[in-house]
Design goal:
With about 325 residues, the chain is α/β, with parallel strands linked by helices. Helices cover about 45% and strands about 20% of the residues.
């Protein structure tokens, strides 16, 4: 339709070299993206825009998406925003300019993704949000864990480990991401039920292990009586474990979120008391399924929930 053609032309002119780079489907596109090769002539091409592939959770999400795409005969082009919202905006615009049939986006920033996602939807390109939503935008489908419930489960697990008393600190994820907001909301709601627990410090560590180490070190120095840490993902939790050294699991109890292999190993060895396990491969698989439904003219589900589970020493073996 004309609207889509004009939008695509405008995006292509505005992006210039970035748009050209995004057309390269045989390797590095020059904007932090990778791909598996070009679409077969007449086939369906779906762009998977991932916030970062340096996080094992999103590697598993990508793997699940790739497996399902192969099974359904979809060409999946994978682009890594490297946790940069501007890069991801360019990737969203480029998906429209280069004629992607559908887009699956895991937003770096739920607010910053709005213009690019809106442009795609206005151009009749289905958009599936996965793991993180897009603020105030009715995407074609949203595939996500129940992050609020997960935050509440984390609060209960941490409170139990702390004996329902003491000081805790919180390591937050990327500001503006729906996952961070919702996990924080659930945790705050859950921990408020324990009147003898005080949250004495909260700071972002951007879902990053190295930042988790630095932020936890600083917060622990400022709050030496802390006996509990909630980190909104396993990478930050593992950074906190490193900051604690021998105190992890002995004097200070750490709860993470995601259920990554490293997080589960830390629960197994006792340095983390719990992680809230998502199913990243299932998230990727279901997102591709919803994209396929949209492309085939079938009805999609507005929200596709994926179960989360609190993993502790008692049940960790079931997840490894």
């Amino acid at each position: 339709m004309k609207t889509k053609k004009f939008a695509a032309l405008f995006a292509a002119l505005a992006l210039g070299a970035t748009g050209l780079a995004g057309c390269n489907r045989d390797g590095d596109t020059g904007d932090g993206s990778t791909s598996d090769g070009g679409a077969a002539e007449g086939g369906q091409t779906v762009h998977l825009l991932v916030s970062t592939l340096s996080n094992p959770f999103f590697v598993q999400l990508r793997d699940g998406a790739e497996q399902e795409a192969d099974a359904l005969g979809i060409e999946l082009e994978i682009l890594d925003a490297q946790d940069d919202a501007v890069t991801q905006t360019n990737q969203l615009n480029n998906a429209l300019a280069t004629g992607a049939d559908a887009v699956i986006v895991n937003p770096v920033d739920s607010d910053a993704a709005v213009p690019g996602v809106t442009g795609l939807l206005d151009g009749d390109v289905p958009v599936i949000a996965v793991d993180r939503g897009v603020t105030d935008v009715d995407v074609t489908s949203f595939v996500s864990s129940d992050n609020v419930q997960g935050g509440q489960l984390a609060a209960d697990a941490l409170a139990e480990a702390m004996g329902e008393t003491g000081e805790a600190i919180v390591l937050q994820g990327i500001p503006g991401s729906s996952a961070s907001r919702e996990r924080g909301e659930g945790f705050n709601e859950g921990i408020s039920a324990y009147s003898d627990i005080t949250v004495s410090g909260t700071q972002t560590a951007n879902f990053d292990r190295a930042e988790g180490l630095n932020v936890a070190t600083n917060l622990l120095q400022a709050n030496p009586a802390v006996s509990g840490i909630f980190a909104e993902n396993d990478e930050m939790a593992l950074g906190a474990v490193e900051a604690l050294g021998a105190r992890a699991g002995e004097d200070v109890f750490v709860v993470g979120f995601d259920g990554t292999d490293d997080g589960l190993a830390a629960v197994s060895d006792g340095t983390m008391v719990a992680t809230i396990a998502q199913q990243p491969e299932e998230l990727g698989r279901l997102a591709v399924q919803q994209a396929k439904k949209a492309l085939d003219g079938e009805e999609t589900e507005a929200v596709v929930p994926v179960e989360v589970v609190a993993v502790t020493e008692e049940n960790v073996a079931d997840f490894q």
